[in-house]
Write a structure and sequence with these properties.
alpha+beta, three-stranded antiparallel beta sheet, 3 strands, 18% helix, 15% strand
């Protein structure tokens, strides 16, 4: 979950999901919601290594599906 707020000037701000640095939701941060490409790639690696998962029932193996 991404925490977001608005600062005194009305700009939307949030914390980078990887490092918790404040990110402004504008064109100065092209990797938003991440602060940088590095943090974006760290998060992608966490998903690829299955350290991040979406809760739910495990998916069926592809071989279990009918060919009908």
């Amino acid at each position: 979950m991404i925490n977001q707020t608005q600062n005194a000037q009305g700009a939307l701000t949030l914390k980078c999901p990887s490092c918790q640095k404040i990110v402004f939701w504008n064109d100065d941060y092209p990797f938003r919601p991440f602060c940088s490409d590095r943090c974006r790639l760290i998060d992608l690696g966490e998903w690829a290594s299955e350290n991040h998962r979406i809760a739910g029932e495990p998916a069926k193996p592809f071989s279990d599906f009918d060919e009908n």
